[in-house]
Amino acid sequence: MNGAAISRRGWHGSRGGPTDPPLQSDGRVGRPSGSLVRPPLNGSIVRRTDGRIMISRLSLSIACLVVAVVSVPMVLRKVPPNSIYGFRTKLTLSNPDIWYPANAFSGWALLVAAAISLATLWLLPEGLLANPWIPLATFLVPLGGGLVASLLYLRRFS
What we know:
The protein is 53% helix and 4% strand. It is mainly α. It folds into two domains: 1-48, no CATH class; 51-157, no CATH class.
């Protein structure tokens, strides 16, 4: 790309170093109309939507939906004891009378965690989502909570 571009840190020239933003003939800061890089419509250089935030939200939203879909058969007690899919521990695999209720509870915990993650991802302001660890934590912390709740539920069968 030739010329200056807007980044999260400000204006940068074609060589990547910071430069002063160009002034237009009417005194406004920004590139002239018709250039490849346009300032935001609201006139602010700082405020712009970062495509990475949208990609992060979308990809983690898809992950939440996958977790929700995977948890539904567990909630419905349709998953028989196996070593691939379900809430697998020595205790749950040892007895079908433990497997089905433990997996149903774990499925509900995953479903609730996915719903919390999805809602939080879309309710957090973009400023917080600029840090790549925040969306990831928004996804993983509720899932971790669901895992802890499932392990605590499993204790009643010991």
